[in-house]
Amino acid sequence: MPLSEHEQRVFDEIEQSLAEDPKFASAVRSHDPRHRGRRRMVVAGLIVVAGLALLVIGLMTIRELSFAGAVVMFAGMGFALQTQRKARSGELSAVGGKATRRTGKSSRRRPSAGGRGGGLGDRLEERWRRRRGEGWM
């Protein structure tokens, strides 16, 4: 539904005042999930590089140090994969942290009996439910 002329004018004024507020802009930027994700990926990259450096130095000097380097490197890769998975989940949050929406396994929608399922697992699960309901088992 389109906004009325008065509502559109008020909306433009609010938008203008928020754009001019540097404190609000920095608060929104610091709570942006994309910004946090980028920062976490950089940290994960640095951890992987540090682990790789420990691995190489350990191979040249002390063997136990190379083992520790491999562990650190794999931990950094795990951190990067976890960050990437979180970025795909569609996490949204408000500046104050009051309005949050997280999409995960608990909030995933189930396909209806008449509709098409999203993935292979959902379709197989729906077929299983129908078979159990029809008395196949």
Query: Structural class given helices, strands, pairing?
Result: mainly alpha
**Principal-axes shape call:** flat
Q: In what range is the share of β-strand residues?
A: under 5%
H and E order: HHHHEEH
**Strand order within the widest sheet?**
1-2
The low-confidence runs, each spanning 5 or more residues with pLDDT under 50, are: 97-101
Radius of gyration: 25 Å
So how many helices? 5
N/C terminus separation: 50 Å
Q: Percent of residues in helical segments?
A: 55-70%
Total strand count, please?
A: 2
Largest pleated sheet: 2 strands, antiparallel
Overall pLDDT score: 76
Question: Could you characterize the architecture of this molecule?
Answer:
This protein is an all-alpha fold and 137 residues long. It is built from 5 helices and 2 strands; from the N terminus they run ααααββα. It has helices at 5-19, 22-30, 33-60, 63-88, 120-134, and strands at residues 92-93, 100-101. A two-stranded antiparallel ribbon has the order 1-2. A hairpin with a 6-residue loop joins strand 1 and strand 2. Helix 3 runs antiparallel to helix 4 (63-88). It is flat and about 75 Å long.
Brief overview, please?
Helices cover 68% and strands 3% of the residues. The protein is mostly helical and 137 residues long. Strands 1-2 form a two-stranded antiparallel ribbon.
Reconstruct the topology from this structure:
Elements: H1 5-19, H2 22-30, H3 33-60, H4 63-88, E1 92-93, E2 100-101, H5 120-134
Antiparallel strand pairs: 1-2
Helix pairs in contact: 3-4
